[in-house]
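Q: Is it fine to ask for two folds in a single conversation?
A: Yes, each is treated on its own. Send the first.
Q: Here.
A: Result:
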Amino acid sequence: MPRPVTRHALLPCGILAMLLIAACGSAATPAPDAVDDSPPAAAPAADATELTDVTIALSWTPNTDYTGVYVAQQNGYYEQAGLQVTTLPYAGTLPETLVAQGVADFGFSYQAGVVYGRAAGLDIISVLAPNQRGTYAIAVRADRADLTRPRDLDGRVYAGFGSPDEVPLLQSIIRNDGGRGEFERVTLDTAAYQAVYNGRADFTISVVTWDGVEAGLSNQPVRTFPLTDYGFPEQYSTLIITSEAFRSANLGVTRAFLAATQRGYEFAAANPWAAAQAVIDRNPDAFPNPALVFASEELLAAENYRRAANGRVGAQQARIWSEYGDFLFDNGLLADASGQPLARRPQWTQYWTNDDLPPGTL
C-alpha cells in the first residue's frame, strides 16, 4: 500500500459515495459479496442443548476490532462449532487481567499489552491476530502546513494515553526523520483527532481504521505518519488472547472457538459491508452514525489489513513478535512480577502461538 509522508486518513471516493447511503441508517445496506456458509473446518455441528459456554472480554467499546466475533455470532459459526459465545463489555478491568484470572476464557489485547502482562507473570498467550499489521499512526490536523513530517513535531505538544511505550516510540520515529525527539506531553481524555482539533495538542497517536475514519466523517480530517515509514518495527494492534491454563484444559474448545472466529474475520475481509451490518446488528445502540462502521470495514478490506501476504487470516509472524518485542525490552519498558526491570530478553515464541488455528492458516 502506498504511504506518502502527507497521507491523510481519508477515504477513497467510492467509499465516501457509499457513506451517503450508510449515514441514513443501518437498515439500508448494500448487497454483500458472496457469502461462505460452509461449516467451519474444525467444528462439528451441535444441538443447541449441547453448546459449550465461552466468554471473550472486549478491550474497549464496540468497534471493528471485534468484527470477527460479531460475524461468527450473527452467522451462526459458533453454534455450528458447538459453542455459545458471550462478549464481556469493557468495564475498567483490562482483558489481560480477566483472562489471567479465569474470569474470561478469551480476550482482546494488543502486542504491547500481551508483552507487559506476560513479562509481569500473567498467564496469557496470544492465539490469533485479527489484523496482520498495525493500525496506529501519528496524526496531526490535515490543514497544518507546518507539520508535514515527524521531525516537524520537535517542540510540539503530544496528547497521549499514558502507555509507557508511547514516548520511546515517538522519539524513535522523530529521530529517524532527522529530529531531536523532544516534545511536551498531556494525557488524553477525548478522541485522538479531537485533541488536535481543539488546540489541546499538536499531534497524537491515532487508530487510522477507526479514529482516522471518524475524523474524516466529522469534517476534521487528519494527516497521518505511518510508523513503519520511519524505520519503526511493525506491531500487532489487535490480538486475541487466552490463558495457558484454559488452553491446556480445553484444547478442543479453544480450537473450535478460533476456527469459528477466524472464519468471521475471513468473512469480513471478503464482505466488508455485510460484516459491518453484523457489527451494527449485534450492537444496535452503539453507533450514532453507522457510516463509521461501514467505512471502517471498507478501509480494513480495501487496504488489506486483515490478510497476510499469502492471503490468509489470523496467523501471527515470528518476525513481528521479535522485532517489536525487542524494541520494548531494549527501551527498558518491561518489568517482572515484582516490578523490577526484566533482566533477560524474553523468548518471544512463549508469548504467542499459531498451533491452535485451523490447518492451512499458515
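Q: Second one now.
A: Result:
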Amino acid sequence: MPRVSVRKATRKDSASFLRLVLALAKFESLEPPGAAAKRRLVEDVFAKKRINLLIAESDRAAVGYALYYFSYSSFLARPTLYLEDLFVLESARGQGVGKSLFLKCVKEAVAAGCGRMEWAVLKWNERAIGFYEGMGAKRLDEWHFYRLDSETLRRLTSR
C-alpha cells in the first residue's frame, strides 16, 4: 500500500488543489468553478486565509484534500471546525487517504480548542456516510439546512 502523507497546503499546491476541486465537482455532478471562482478560491486559501487547506499525497502526487474553516458556537462558547470538503480521488480510495485527512482535521479541531466539528454529506453518498458513522459521527436529524444563493442575496438587498 502506498505511503500517504497529509500536510498544510502551500501556494505551490494551487494547481493540484484546483484539479482536485474539478474532480469533486465531477464526482458530485455539479458545475465546476469558473476561472474567476478558481482565482478567488486560491486567494481565499493562501492570501486572505479565510479557509484552511490540507493536501494528501501518495507517491508525491496530490490525491485528496480537506478544506475547512472555523465558525463559533455561542452555547459552547468555543469554535467549531466546519469541514467544507473532504475529497479523495477514486484511484486512491480505500488506501487510508480519507481517514488520514479526517484525523488531521480532528487534530486541528482539538488544537484550536473546538467544542465540536461539523460537516454535511450528500444523502446519496452512502460510502461517506458509512465512513463518518464508523468514525463515531452522529447524524443530526433535528436540523434543516437552508441556503440563500447569490441571486436571492442580491434580490433581498435591492428592496
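Q: Anything structural to flag on that second result?
A: Two points. The two ends are 58 Å apart (CA to CA). The beta strands are 4-8, 52-58, 61-73, 78-88, 116-119.
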